[in-house]
Amino acid sequence: MDGMKLDSRILGNRVADMRISRGLTQFQLAELIGRSRVYVGYLEQGKRCGTLLTYMDIVSVLGYSLNDLVGSGFQDPDTELLSELGAALTDCSGDEKESILRIFREMLKMIRMFHGS
């Protein structure tokens, strides 16, 4: 899965949404999967990323599939970055975009010189 990452915050939000949709508290879910409420809280906040088995337990007790959980949680970091850059440039004039591109190229040269690449 080179170049791909799983965003633990998105995954955690989905776990929370699934849990809430089933009317369960963090404590109740924790009991069902044999974990602590604190652990479930960390998963939902994206502070901790569980194992595949943990997520399988979660979706199983909540009546969902791993596909429901993961959805578009896998993001290509380059695509995400390019999207953010594009959004930042939408309000710029043509001259501003050209200036930004020149500055970017100069910064890239400096970074590569500094890092020896």
TrEMBL record:
Residues 15-69 form the HTH cro/C1-type domain. Signal peptide: none annotated. Pfam families: HTH_31 (PF13560). InterPro entries: Cro/C1-type_HTH, Lambda_DNA-bd_dom_sf. One of its GO terms (molecular function) is DNA binding. This is XRE family transcriptional regulator. It comes from uncultured bacterium Contigcl_1542. The lineage of its organism: Bacteria, environmental samples.
